[in-house]
Specification:
15 helices, alpha+beta, three-stranded antiparallel β-sheet, about 15% strand, single chain
Length: about 400
């Protein structure tokens, strides 16, 4: 790669120096060049040119790219997103990317800076959302800002790999802190209210299974009778139902691992009764019943329940029984974990039942359920220490 220094006279009459570097050819065979001017002295232009040529020699030079940021984001979503993300995740990425392209879509890709990105995140934090009823601007939550930033980081990280950027501008961005929130759980009395209220909506069995196993929504709705062992009281969790704008699809679990968990005896008996009731529906619908799906929790005709509809109904049930907003089907998962940990069940066991990748994930989410264990540890140490102190010392020098 070669370059040269040149002199130019501005309309104001001022003389400036600049450099031009031959950067090879693009994919269409057209010559690519890097220009930069505005130096007051020839020596400054010479020094900048030498620095650029050194970067090239070290393999760090970013290639110029004329496209705008919005076009590159769309390129990533189209070319790389489908290969890296599930349809649901890609759908969410596209929504989040819309916040970025609305503000920065017309910016030339290589002109994008950390300062530009940070200003956009600040603007979104102040008034980037819309009230669902009034449509008036309102702040986006810090968590949403972090999700938008994650998309920007992934997209611009790809630009770095393609040598469009020398470094990712997101590395210099400071994001708002995300308040730590404890996972909400229900005590025994409130759990009973919730489960009882679910009967009127035909969701009692589903809610009981969620409360007794801690399974995720998608895992519950993809569960088949072939996965359930009523003789040994266990179930295999290896699939999940996902809802996207394109429809429903069954995929692997969040961690892409299959796990087997034990079922409470009362839940086993409830499932036996539930299966008998399903047989009545099967006979009623005849050939129209979706026997091929073999679902444990399904519509009257044996078809899939829509995840979004189940979540909406779960929130409605919570409001009807006086638990208010913030209680959902996922609350039963949190309640299951919290109750087990508070009862002394080991962290690895709870983590395995929930299908977490490691115990650190479980501990960080359910730290509120662990203080009793910590207190118990202190009490056990104290008891052991006192026993040792009360015994006559052997060989003690008085």
């Amino acid at each position: 790669m070669t370059g040269c220094v040149f002199k130019r006279r501005l309309k104001s009459g001022r003389v400036v120096w600049g450099y031009s570097v031959d950067a090879g050819k693009d994919e269409n065979g057209r010559r690519k060049q890097i220009f930069k001017s505005g130096f007051s002295r020839k020596a400054d232009a010479d020094e900048a040119l030498r620095g650029l040529l050194n970067e090239k020699a070290e393999g760090e030079l970013a290639r110029p790219d004329p496209q705008i940021f919005g076009a590159f984001v769309e390129h990533w979503l189209r070319e790389y997103g489908p290969r890296k993300c599930s349809p649901k995740t890609l759908e969410r990425y596209r929504q989040l990317a819309g916040y970025l392209t609305a503000h920065l879509g017309g910016i030339r890709l290589q002109d994008l800076t950390a300062l530009m990105l940070e200003r956009v995140f600040n603007a979104l934090r102040d008034a980037g959302g819309r009230h669902p009823k009034t449509k008036k601007p309102r702040p986006l939550s810090p968590m949403t800002i972090h999700h938008i930033a994650a998309v920007a980081n992934v997209v611009l990280g790809k630009a770095v790999k393609l040598k469009i950027f020398k470094s990712n501008p997101m590395q210099g961005v400071e994001l708002p802190a995300v308040p730590r929130r404890e996972a909400r759980s229900l005590d025994g009395e409130k759990m009973a209210w919730y489960l009882d209220a679910a009967r009127a909506h035909g969701l009692y069995e589903l809610f009981m299974f969620a409360a007794g196993t801690g399974c995720r929504r998608g895992e519950l709705l993809a569960l088949t009778w072939a996965d359930v062992d009523l003789v040994n009281g266990a179930t295999r969790i290896g699939r999940s139902l996902e809802q996207t704008s394109a429809g429903l699809r069954v995929k692997s679990t969040k961690t892409e691992r299959t796990r087997t968990i034990s079922l409470p005896a009362s839940l086993v008996e409830l499932l036996k009764f539930h299966r008998e009731c399903q047989e009545h529906d099967r006979a009623l619908f005849g050939q129209d019943y979706r026997s091929d799906l073999d679902l444990v929790f399904c519509g009257p005709a044996g078809d899939y329940l829509k995840p979004d509809s189940v979540s909406s109904m779960a929130s409605r049930v919570a409001r009807e029984c006086g638990l208010g907003r913030g209680v959902s089907l996922h609350t039963l998962r949190h309640s299951h974990a919290s109750q087990l940990l508070s009862s002394g069940v080991s962290l690895p066991t709870v983590s395995k039942r929930l299908g977490h990748t490691d115990v650190h994930t479980t501990a960080s989410i359910y730290s509120h359920a662990l203080p009793k264990d910590d207190l118990k540890a202190a009490e056990l140490w104290e008891a052991g220490f006192q026993r040792a102190a009360d015994q006559p010392a052997k060989g003690r020098v008085s």
